[in-house]
Amino acid sequence: MASKDNQGSGAFIRTESAFRHFISPEPNAQFPAEKGRYALYISPTCPWAHRTSIVRILKGLENIIDLYELHPSMGPKGWYFSGEGSSLPADPLYGFKYLPDLYKKADPSFTGPFTVPMLWDKRTHTVVNNESSEIIRMLTTAFDHLLPEHLREVNRPGGGLYPKHLQSSIDEVNSWVYNLINNGVYKTGFATTQQAYDANLYPLFEGLDRVEQLLSSPAPSDGGSPETKSRKYLLGDNLTETDVRLYTTIIRFDVAYRPVFLCSLKSIRHDYPSIYSWLRRLHWDQDSRETNAAFHSTSAPYLDVYGPSYAAARHKKVFGGQGPLIVPGGPTPLIDQL
Ligand SMILES: N[C@@H](CCC(=O)N[C@@H](CS)C(=O)NCC(=O)O)C(=O)O
User: Fold this and answer.
1) 178 lines ligand 1 (CB under 6 A)
2) What is the pLDDT of residues 292-316, one digit of tens each?
3) Rounded Cα distance, 61 and 140, in Å
4) CATH T-level assignment (fold) for domain 38-155
5) Fewer Cβ neighbours under 10 Å: the N or C end of the chain?
């Protein structure tokens, strides 16, 4: 996973993403939104990549942006195409076997980290962007003029995934959810000293407590009505990008972060009833027009792969690949029905 040298403290420090261009709806932009021009490279186990594959489906962009899936675990040379399961046998554009080859094609001087998700421009043969939080914003708004009316942001329930009236609340919640939870599980699981582990484990669960409290409070639109027990989504009655960004961490929690990354104080299923019901509603929703099965179709096939792939990642990162690799079993079931 993308990280810097921890300067001896045992702390995991995430590296800033390197490619930060934006796709724009303007036809004369450097990267204009066009059908068939861009490709998303992902691994289905990566939570940052998972954000982008969810939003691609939520927005109905399957015929506009290609999706190229790599093997669920990294190999010695990084992410690669294996032809196993849903991984493509090789890069469909240039026949490469390894993701780093694409980065090198875009910029021969780039030395990594070679991360997923990565958004590629087929026209100019370069990386547009490799920062998931920015990729999902582009997918949310830049292609709307190519989409049917009901999929455009202005016509979605509540004004879309990042509506103007909620932007400051979304940014505020995203910020602490990222620090304490999305990145918190990595800071806990990749700590190489007891001190660094302790310093991140407790804040992670304070973050989860805060989400539990948020989800069990009435939606702002209820005006605090005592009859309403909880809100449907993190920001109220409608799905926003904050739900997407939290979902990809929570769906991995009991099956991977808790057993493999030692995020062991509590589990989602036994200790966080509001988070677990929010998670199951999103995960099992296969028919609503609001989600278009985006959550289920991008996680159900991989639930049993998260544990082994995170076990391999931690084994490599924390133990340098030395010693036996043990993959914990369970939990059973991997997720409960609604
Ligand atoms: N900030 C990036 C982080 C992406 C990231 O760390 N991806 C990991 C996989 S979960 C990766 O590709 N790591 C490759 C490496 O470290 O070599 C984002 O949100 O897009």
Assistant:
1) no
2) 999 999 999 999 999 999 999 999 9
3) 10
4) Glutaredoxin (3.40.30)
5) C
